[in-house]
Amino acid sequence: MRKPLYCGGQWINTSETLEVINPFTKDIISEVSLADESIVESAIYHAYTGFSKTKKLSSYKRYQILTQIAREIEREKETFAFLIAMESGKPYKYALAEVNRAVQTFSIAAEESKRIFHEYFALDTTPEELPREGLVKRFPVGVVLAITPFNFPLNLVAHKVAPAIASGCSIVLKPASATPLTALKLAEIIEKTDFPKEAFSVLPARSSLIEKYLNHPLIAKVSFTGSPQAGWAIKEKAHKKKVTLELGGNAATIITKSADIESIVSHCVTAAFAYSGQICIHTQRIFVHPQHFQRFTEMFIEKTRCLKFGNPMDKCTDISVMIDEENAIRGENWINEAIQDGAEFMLQGKREGNYLSPTILTNTHNMMKVYSEEVFAPIVCIEKYDGNIEDAVHKVNDSKYGLQCGVFTNDIKELDYCFEHIECGSVIHNASSILRLDAMPYGGIKESGFGREGVRYAILEMTEPRLLLKERNI
After folding, report:
1. Which of 155, 246, 349, 440 is the most exposed place for a label (fewest CB within 10 A)?
2. Residues near 386 by Cβ (< 8 Å), separated by ≥ 6?
3. Contact 182, 10 (CB under 8 A)
4. Is 169 a catalytic residue?
């Protein structure tokens, strides 16, 4: 079945199409129309003209639009979940969880649209006592070019579209080429609302084409989620634009002496292997107190062996294929390189096509790609630290990335030390690095990103402060 793209309120079929492949069955699900230069130009122009309407939408109208989107996603959540599982290979139970999160993301944005930050302050604070007062109000920046990855084809789209609507911006969305159907399904819902039709487009397109428009004069902001390599290249090319980069990392989790390992091991297994590790905050490195190392690893291996492989459409499947064979081969090669360099298997994974079974390694170090790079595969490195929290934090920070870190501890001094000294965007207490709540600020430092997402914080990124320096007593 051929699916048109959505450009400024119009569904358009183009001469060039993209095949969307089910990663598990290898069947062609659909053919999607690809945008060409004329379509991209049209979408940007429509978004620019649509911005004259979106910026005038009242807070209540934005709230109403976002609430309607959330309700429609909720009403069609099983349809969305099956679509995500089919085009991304994400097991259904995780796909359904993603849909539920997207409902929350739009609902949070609806509430935030009613309380966008303004500030009043007196300015008679100098000896001159000038009769002035200040009002800072935030205004939407304009057209947002949003570029999203394959691994969360609904909720990571929602984290760009929802705050843009709440801010009063217009949006041109370029979804991942592997997973465009979910974004196009969302366009069907947004089209039914009162959001100005010309202000929203979903353009499946080649990345090389979209790159040409990063500095387009009508685009005010670029918001990108994806690999660090692609993200920093985008920032360099879009150097005159406001840019938000939500990139990847090699997230760590610390398990201290005070942790109750019996209660946390299942959570840690999920954090390591959910969606085959294709999550930017999946737990890639685990540092365990020596007192717990043997017992923790035994339980971790045992529970990993119990993960059920199968068709992602099966509601009982725990782990399935990766997005494509190229990435599965890359993961396999990194494992082999690490073993040749002295790493040891705790659990040896094997590759069949684009399925890479869970792999647990130890005796790893920062000269190995499985440890130092973003692995984005079902691979985890488990190591001891020397028992001192300072050593665990040092090992976490021995990385060019800094997105999130989980810390299991019941010692407040250890927690305080971690919060003060771990170099990352978020420290997660008594949960692994994979935990993300959609209302929280989200983003990294070092090579893991630039700026913050999380609905309220994305709204700040999509608005500009403007000061009125007002004379008093008029």
Report:
1. 440
2. 290
3. no
4. no
Give the mean model confidence (pLDDT) for residues 363-383.
98
pLDDT, one tens digit per residue, over 228-249 is 999 999 999 998 899 999 999 9
Same-domain status, 362 and 317: yes
Distance CA 136, CA 147 (A): 30
474 pLDDT more than 70? no
Residues 280 and 412 in one domain: yes
Q: Are residues 353 and 215 in the same domain?
A: no
The verdict on whether 246 is a catalytic residue reads: yes
Are 216 and 334 part of one and the same domain?
A: no
Q: Domain limits at 56?
A: 2-247+449-469
Is 474 a member of any domain? no
The residue annotated as part of the active site, out of 246, 383, 447, 461, is 246
Q: Do both 277 and 164 map to the same domain?
A: no
pLDDT band per the 50, 70, 90 thresholds, residue 452: very high
* Contact by Cβ (8 Å): 257, 289: yes
Residue 125 has pLDDT above 90, yes or no: no
Give, as one character, the DSSP assignment of residue 453.
B
CA distances from 129 to 2, 120, 125, 153, 472 (A): 68, 17, 6, 55, 12
Whole-prediction pTM: 0.97
Q: How many structural domains is the chain composed of?
A: 2
Between strands 132-140 and 143-147, the pairing is unpaired
> How much of the chain exceeds pLDDT 90, in percent?
95
